[in-house]
């Protein structure tokens, strides 16, 4: 798997490179700034980008904007965004096109290497990897709106874990219920959010979008 | 309060029913009323002058004969302060009336009253007498009395001369009824009319005619007088609104804050807001220090100790060491989370990245109720203003979700070229009062550091509209010039 990393802190950039290489991925290029990232994407044809939100030269949301631009150039290009903080506004912008292949994690999650690499793989495969903190903030603040409000507490829990990018098996394990029960819950969630069975592949992403977009 | 009530837009002029005559008549009435109010201020001053006169004449005698001279002095000073207060009251009224009638909003020039528990009568008296505005008030009152007297003198003098000439002519002619009605007619009370004194010479000339034509002469005098009266009245009606404007300008010069008073008021305001800013800055530093000390710092120390113990246990009890390392890892995660919250409290990252509009959008996403953010900012305000505005909106929204019991909230952010304007409207139960709530008071004080203002309209039953305005230019070169 070919990865491009954009991170301005040398230590973290180096650490990420080593970690991903240790897990059998190819780091095509590890760059420092937003413009360099765009150049690297154009040159390297990566399978997934790992991008820090705050990058030089502006030290604002340069990385996020570069990632969004790269995705405009290559629709569906998987992007995993790392940040010192999570911001539902940014998560919403990333997910806005509804094609999936998006991750948004706190930098803390890098400390657990297996979980982090797992997240990179999920995103590269077109899934989602939302930080539990984003999900938690949305669950606590956003529960009063629209279709998401009609979900039962258990269904909301399942949706939260789904948004984090877990498979049905992982959700079942986390909530200590059977996989059949999880499947029942997800079917009910899709029904209540009005997601048709035909677009099966992206329904998980669309479900996450439903409550990011209100 | 008085400034807002006399603001020009509230005094939008309604069309007069009788055109310029009506306007002139109302201006005449208003001018007279203004003179009367201003002269009312002279009454206490006159009373004071009388007392002083008595003091000067009687006081010297009383020293030797009656002894308690200082009681007289006390009485005099009490009257002095009383008259100063009365004077201020009268001038305040004329200031308001001038604002309403002359179209000139006049701010109060007085120095702030001494506050605190230790303020005695002496401090109040010296405050009243040391304020240069008091003496300007006095000057204004004096000018009003003298000016009013002179204005009155013109028509009265004209009347007197006219009456005299009537007596002279009428006595000789023996046709008093010919000119009787013309006597009370030239009575426009206030306008200075230089034409008035010329009246008697015009009416006195036909005196030289032969006796049999005296009747005709009488009629001629009467019609000439009537014509002059009409002309005079018309001139008065025409001049009155203009004079009223001049009067307003003059009042503004004397009753409004002059450069010195304006500077003094500005210095007072700056001193107050500076001390507020320093206080809130210091409080914020203490909060950050406390959070770091009790939170992240303590966690890092604990983590170091845990790792130290783990290091010692690696040989003897690897199981326990691993547990300790796991604990340290959890501790580091918590320390990071705390630091993150701290940073968010100091300067929210979205605000730094995206500016006010998106930062408020992010705030709206965090609200437990639906919020709609509208508005545009062509460029970013200066960072301190942006930050103050953000935290103000944050606090207003927190109030809405905590106390308002609202179902929806609307936020609008605009910049009108001079000031940043933010409105936060909710459909809650209303009844928010800045004078009661410490939160809103604190918000007002923090905005005051930027010369910003907060206005809250919250009738019981809602809706609550909180709007704040901070004067500032935007950073873009296109808009910073305006």
From TrEMBL, chain A:
<dbReference type="Pfam" id="PF00072">
    <property type="entry name" value="Response_reg"/>
</dbReference>
<protein>
    <submittedName>
        <fullName>DNA-binding NarL/FixJ family response regulator</fullName>
    </submittedName>
</protein>
<keyword id="KW-0238">DNA-binding</keyword>
<dbReference type="InterPro" id="IPR001789">
    <property type="entry name" value="Sig_transdc_resp-reg_receiver"/>
</dbReference>
<dbReference type="GO" id="GO:0003677">
    <property type="term" value="F:DNA binding"/>
</dbReference>
<keyword id="KW-0805">Transcription regulation</keyword>
<dbReference type="InterPro" id="IPR039420">
    <property type="entry name" value="WalR-like"/>
</dbReference>
<feature type="domain" description="Response regulatory">
    <location>
        <begin position="2"/>
        <end position="122"/>
    </location>
</feature>
<dbReference type="GO" id="GO:0000160">
    <property type="term" value="P:phosphorelay signal transduction system"/>
</dbReference>
<feature type="modified residue" description="4-aspartylphosphate">
    <location>
        <position position="52"/>
    </location>
</feature>
<dbReference type="GO" id="GO:0006355">
    <property type="term" value="P:regulation of DNA-templated transcription"/>
</dbReference>
<dbReference type="InterPro" id="IPR000792">
    <property type="entry name" value="Tscrpt_reg_LuxR_C"/>
</dbReference>
<dbReference type="InterPro" id="IPR016032">
    <property type="entry name" value="Sig_transdc_resp-reg_C-effctor"/>
</dbReference>
<dbReference type="Pfam" id="PF00196">
    <property type="entry name" value="GerE"/>
</dbReference>
<keyword id="KW-0804">Transcription</keyword>
<dbReference type="InterPro" id="IPR011006">
    <property type="entry name" value="CheY-like_superfamily"/>
</dbReference>
<feature type="domain" description="HTH luxR-type">
    <location>
        <begin position="144"/>
        <end position="214"/>
    </location>
</feature>
<dbReference type="InterPro" id="IPR058245">
    <property type="entry name" value="NreC/VraR/RcsB-like_REC"/>
</dbReference>
<keyword id="KW-0597">Phosphoprotein</keyword>
Automatic annotation (TrEMBL), chain B:
<dbReference type="GO" id="GO:0016020">
    <property type="term" value="C:membrane"/>
</dbReference>
<keyword id="KW-0812">Transmembrane</keyword>
<feature type="domain" description="Histidine kinase/HSP90-like ATPase">
    <location>
        <begin position="388"/>
        <end position="471"/>
    </location>
</feature>
<dbReference type="GO" id="GO:0000155">
    <property type="term" value="F:phosphorelay sensor kinase activity"/>
</dbReference>
<feature type="transmembrane region" description="Helical">
    <location>
        <begin position="71"/>
        <end position="91"/>
    </location>
</feature>
<dbReference type="InterPro" id="IPR011712">
    <property type="entry name" value="Sig_transdc_His_kin_sub3_dim/P"/>
</dbReference>
<keyword id="KW-1133">Transmembrane helix</keyword>
<feature type="domain" description="Putative sensor">
    <location>
        <begin position="72"/>
        <end position="255"/>
    </location>
</feature>
<dbReference type="Pfam" id="PF02518">
    <property type="entry name" value="HATPase_c"/>
</dbReference>
<keyword id="KW-0597">Phosphoprotein</keyword>
<protein>
    <recommendedName>
        <fullName>histidine kinase</fullName>
        <ecNumber>2.7.13.3</ecNumber>
    </recommendedName>
</protein>
<keyword id="KW-0808">Transferase</keyword>
<dbReference type="InterPro" id="IPR036890">
    <property type="entry name" value="HATPase_C_sf"/>
</dbReference>
<feature type="region of interest" description="Disordered">
    <location>
        <begin position="180"/>
        <end position="203"/>
    </location>
</feature>
<dbReference type="InterPro" id="IPR025828">
    <property type="entry name" value="Put_sensor_dom"/>
</dbReference>
<dbReference type="GO" id="GO:0005524">
    <property type="term" value="F:ATP binding"/>
</dbReference>
<dbReference type="Pfam" id="PF13796">
    <property type="entry name" value="Sensor"/>
</dbReference>
<keyword id="KW-0472">Membrane</keyword>
<keyword id="KW-0902">Two-component regulatory system</keyword>
<feature type="domain" description="Signal transduction histidine kinase subgroup 3 dimerisation and phosphoacceptor">
    <location>
        <begin position="286"/>
        <end position="351"/>
    </location>
</feature>
<keyword id="KW-0418">Kinase</keyword>
<dbReference type="InterPro" id="IPR050482">
    <property type="entry name" value="Sensor_HK_TwoCompSys"/>
</dbReference>
